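Hello forum,

I keep getting stuck at the same step: I have a sequence, I want structure tokens, and every attempt I make locally crashes halfway through. Rather than fight my setup again tonight, could one of you with a working pipeline run this one for me? It's a single chain of 471 residues.
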Amino acid sequence: MGLIRRITVSMVVMVCALGALAAPPAQAAAAGIVAIAEGELNNAERNHEEPLGSDCTFYVAQTRPHMAGCGNGWRAGSWCADFVKYVWRVAKDPEAMQPDRAGNLNGWAHSFYEYGRRQGTWHPRGSGYQPRPGDAIVFDWAADGFDSTVGSFAGGGYDIDHVGIVRSADSTAVSTIEGNASDRVLAKSYPLTSPSIVGYTTPTKAFWPTQTKGDRGADVTAIQHLLASSGRTVPVDGEFGASTDTAVRDFQTARGLGADGNVGPNTWAALAPSLQQGDNSSAVKALQFQLNVKRGAGLVVDGDFGGLTKAAVVAFQQHAGIESNGIAGPITWRHLISHHQPLGTGVCVAGGRWGTAAAVGQLTAAASRVAGLAVRDLGAEHDGGWGMDARLALMRTDRGQCGGPVDRFSPLYDQAATRELIAAARATGRVKAVYFSDPVLIAEGLVTAGPDDAVAVRYCAVVHPDPAYDC
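Reply #2:
Ran it on my machine without issues. Output:
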């Protein structure tokens, strides 16, 4: 019997423990944000204005290259927000990776408040919120609460003058790393009750993942339930095929959206209605299904928004660090759809098993074609990565991939079977690159030079905040 054969997705090749689903949210790798900020704090070459008092810094050049040049490739401008945006950008916050413009994170400190309001992660001082490492902390130095000259920028009545990064916090004080503090990057601290602190914004990697024809997985299943809720007939099979594409285009036309077949931010927002207890529809099925696969909620997918569904929504909202009201509105939907999903029991996994729904769907499809496919690592539930880089174990002559890894120099390495593994991974689609060091497979054009002990697969999306993951 050939190596590549059909097996059911539910077949248990080897089951590794999922780990606790109740792990606290790290939301854009807070520890990574702090480490990046500390690196800048200690970088004597660029952690200051040059000359002091000039507003000329490295950070303005990175986030607002349109500002006036001031030598050394640096740019000039008030730069506290540039510093925080730069650090969040390096940590791969999706919005921080976008260009400087109104309505987005930009060179104004108030934009971090507005980000928090958009994402549902804004926490005013005095709300009982305990600031987390990596949060943005925003200040009103005069503690006057409102500045009429700022107008709409002070939405909510806040006059925001400055922003920094939370390094740590306890029950009495918050430690920060701030740019544009006495003309340099400095470490500072404040009492939690300081009237100058307006509040905190927690970074998040929540964004609407674009899905289109050829995609598969839990997010596609949600789209199909939502299309059914809109009155369209479509199979609910997790495969974004021709019928789903037709239904999406029909929905987009009816809503006055560009009928391109891509389910991006605007189409997602139009598809996903606000839901609450008492609702009964296929949209509720989409919600229940997502809560099950991404948070292990154990709900019956029956379309009835009852008490158990509300409790699961509240639990997810608490996990995500957003308002916990039991109503699945736009912010909750966006956080849920973008949340990573664990690989199921049909694939043996030695390391992290969390990835995007699309990557999990592609890996599951590959596992249905290759007996013994083993994943060495995909990612953690909240690790700051995109969840789209999988490391697959090399195929072994004894078919013991799940028992332990080998490298290409091992007598147990099976080159022919690994070639078939790579072909199966590519056949599922949405693969940007495959990396492995076998010179024969490199010469065949199957892989790019990479690790000796794994096949590293990078998945991609038609549209992604990080160009490295664009198809």
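Residues 1-28, 150-155 have pLDDT under 50 and may be disordered. If your local run keeps crashing, start a new thread with the error log.
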